[in-house]
Give the backbone structure.
Amino acid sequence: MKGAVVLLSGGLDSTTTLAIAIAQDYEAYALSFDYGQRHKIEVEASRRVANSLGAKEHRVAKIDMRIFGGSALTDDRDVPKKRSETEIADGIPATYVPARNTIFLAYALAWAEIIPVADIFIGVNAIDYSGYPDCRPEFIEAFEMLANLGTKAGVEGTRFRIHAPLIRFSKSEIIRKAAEINVDLSLTHSCYDPSPEGLACGECDSCLLRLKGFREAGIKDPIRYAEK
């Protein structure tokens, strides 16, 4: 079997991406991050998902992006709630974490070079997303070029490939794809501001996009939400 590093947050998109990589006969080396995020519960979700889907290995890299701040996910500021679809689609939100996917992909690339494998999967999506610049096709293409220019393996002949299989999927299409390949979405976590018990708030951008996706897919969301 061929191998691949798969970035895994424990959310809908990365979980479905991991399942796709495994369905394509990759041995999956799942990589998650404890980066000081307020929704650290997603790390536990990633462990559940990696175990359920049969990742060959799962590692959690601990880094502290709170030292820079600049995001509602790493600072002590409010996560935006109850925004309309128009508001969510307008501009880059306060939950953007500076250079996050660049940093995550750099870690994935380092591990890929060591294993060694040539393929990296990331669950970014440029359709139903919150305007993050590091979720666009142009970014993925640019990072792939960087990977091949800036590594020992790349200059010695390895051709690194960055796979973003969901990049042109809507959230409902991602959910349908997950159902098609029998992914247990009850194991996932999407909320940016969960309750102390770990329940999704149902009001942040991520929850609203998730709920919209399930509604449009005609499938019931299997996770629990906090009572309001």
